[in-house]
Amino acid sequence: MKFNIFAVASGLFAPASALLRFGCSGLTVQRLDPLVNPGMNPSAHLHQIIGGNSFNASMPPETHDLAALSTCTSCQFTEDLSNYWTAVIFYRGKNGTFKRVPQMAQAGMEGTQGGMVVYYMTDALFDTAQKSTVTAFKPGFRMLVGDATYRDREQARKWRQLTYICMENQGTRAPETIGFPTKPCPGGIMANHRFPTCWDGKNLDSPNHQDHVAYPESGTFESGGPCPATHPVRLPQILLETVWDTRAFNDPADFANGKQPFVWSTGDQTGYSSHADYMFGWKDNSLQKAMDGHTYVSAPMLKTQSIAQQNKCKVPDMVGEDIDSWLTNLPGANPVV
Ligand SMILES: *[C@@H]1O[C@H](CO)[C@@H](O)[C@H](O)[C@H]1NC(C)=O
Ligand SMILES: *[C@@H]1O[C@H](CO)[C@@H](O)[C@H](O)[C@H]1NC(C)=O
């Protein structure tokens, strides 16, 4: 079945199932990374962050309860005080300077400033039944998918489903590539981050923020593949969609000879360093209830807020560096390699 979430978002069909899809405005864009570089200000590269406003340079799991410490969230569901973040895409101009690429709201979420669209699924996106049971994350749970140091395709194959879509328009959802698109994308570039879906059932985190989770041992999450014995607990699949508004940077000359002009804030011009971080912060058992409920896209058991309210939730800039001029160097002076 060819699936188009644009059709879903427009309410063309609405089966009973447990799939959450919701918009989150940008909470902040700064060089902080409380998961990989806790306490470091600034961290290695620039991130764009969504979710609860307890986000900070240091968020030790023993003392930092996101759900208790946040007083607002940039997400539509107000019980979601989690944080989610990815690196940031820059355009590298002909004179070698860098300009931060803005983010774009998706159809039906117009007015959302920056941010991403978040999904929690119990089965593949195109599986309208969404019948499987999953175990929601526990307070203190964190994880990272992807590797900021990766620069080649073979390395990137370790990750399933960290992809790009060259958007012709708002509805484009295929094909997906694992490197940056190599032609101008009239509707922007969508970066997709799907997290692993099997948990060891014990550790809320691990030294590399990855070993406590795993992919299904055979097949995929989408095909209902079983979790390995080492990581037997089936989690919801989180998918983050970020649409980078590249429309102002679509000069065909920049795409000549197999080149393309975009770089991640890591300095990566291949796209293979794509990564995303998650810190669980849903209130009480609201996420489990939502996963167990039979809802699709809208979730009546969850409290929602308006886009205007989402846009108001911010955290202050704690780094104090210019990220918006035409920059001689990427923030952190990361070399383009
Ligand atoms: C971030 O942490 C610092 C140090 O603990 C604290 O002073 C500050 O208020 C926190 N900022 C926010 C926005 O919570
Ligand atoms: C580089 O190009 C951009 C876009 O044309 C321009 O705004 C900027 O001033 C240029 N910077 C330098 C140092 O020439």
UniProtKB/TrEMBL annotation:
Instruction: Look up the signal peptide feature and give its range.
Output: 1-18
Domain (DUF1996) ranges: 33-282
Identify the domain of life. Eukaryota
Q: Which UniProt keywords apply?
A: Signal
Task: Provide the protein name.
Answer: DUF1996 domain-containing protein
Organism of this sequence: Daldinia eschscholtzii
